[in-house]
């Protein structure tokens, strides 16, 4: 992450810990879990959770049998995550991972890309993830939709405020969104930007999954999430349309999964001097 004073101040309030554990944020959580369980290599394997926060995903991944190391630039997050059984946590920056080349089986970037406003930094984070993952291993990166600001402002009722309205529409134009309630800038992707950024990081192919669809905008979504039977139907409904290109931008969040090339591709990269070899 780009660790600005505003970003640090927000996360040091510890408000992020429960965001995916309660309310409609659970839809993003369960859908992320759903996609990862279908795209990660089977446990036991070594996963690197970059920008993993307080360990909301690391916790269930360890329970599923994975060996999880979490990296995050926020000390509070690292402290909380390190208390979780089986989770190893330390400070780290997505743009320079303190991990050896081809040493992990999968890399998660479930937060860093929307905190990196500069495209070069986002491509660098993806390039670093590609460096440390083993051949054939997946890199899964979350992005926020370019249209999430307008949808959220309407849902919350803040769209009637002129500043909120202008902020939401600015984000639709250039992807830059100043979160008025949080005080830091986030980057919001157009779904069609994602394959180009992955390609520039050495991933020619990427699968895109819309996480929430329109369902997070429904007024009774919490009622569905509270009822296990209805929740299963809701998750299945979104799964059935998760990769329809025309619907990707409706989801507040998108999960993007690419895989590092196999041995021949890696050899060609090394001959071309693309691997950095640093730890």
UniProtKB/TrEMBL annotation:
GO molecular function: methyltransferase activity
Keywords annotated in UniProt: Methyltransferase, Transferase
Domain Methyltransferase type: residue ranges: 48-139
Pfam families recorded: Methyltransf_11
InterPro entries: Methyltransf_11 (IPR013216), SAM-dependent_MTases_sf (IPR029063)
Domain of life: Bacteria
Biological process according to GO: methylation
Enzyme class: transferase
EC number(s) given by UniProt: 2.1.1.-
UniProt protein name: Class I SAM-dependent methyltransferase
Species classification: Bacteria, Bacillati, Actinomycetota, Actinomycetes, Streptosporangiales
């Amino acid at each position: 992450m780009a660790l600005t004073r505003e970003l640090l101040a927000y996360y040091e309030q510890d408000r992020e810990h429960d965001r995916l554990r309660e309310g409609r944020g659970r839809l993003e959580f369960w859908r992320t879990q759903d996609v990862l369980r279908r795209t990660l290599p089977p446990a036991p394997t070594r996963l690197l959770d970059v920008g993993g926060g307080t360990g909301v995903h690391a916790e269930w991944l360890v329970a599923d049998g994975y060996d999880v190391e979490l990296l995050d630039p926020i000390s509070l997050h690292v402290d909380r995550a390190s208390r979780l059984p089986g989770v190893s946590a330390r400070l780290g920056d997505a743009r320079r991972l303190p991990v050896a080349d081809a040493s992990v089986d999968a890399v998660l970037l479930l937060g860093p890309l929307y905190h990196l406003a500069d495209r070069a930094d986002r491509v660098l984070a993806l390039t670093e993830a590609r460096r440390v993952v083993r051949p054939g291993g997946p890199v899964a990166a979350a992005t926020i939709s370019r249209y999430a600001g307008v949808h959220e402002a309407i849902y919350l009722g803040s769209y009637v405020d002129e500043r909120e309205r202008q902020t939401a529409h600015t984000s639709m134009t250039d992807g830059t969104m100043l979160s008025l309630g949080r005080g830091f800038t986030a980057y919001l992707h157009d779904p069609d930007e994602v394959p180009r950024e992955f390609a520039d990081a050495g991933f020619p192919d990427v699968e895109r999954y819309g996480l929430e669809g329109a369902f997070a905008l429904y007024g009774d979504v919490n009622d569905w999430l509270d009822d296990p039977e209805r929740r299963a139907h809701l998750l299945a409904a979104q799964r059935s349309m998760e990769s329809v290109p025309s619907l990707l931008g409706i989801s507040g969040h998108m999960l993007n999964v690419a895989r590092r090339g196999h041995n021949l591709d890696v050899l060609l990269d090394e001959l071309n001097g693309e691997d950095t070899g640093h730890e």
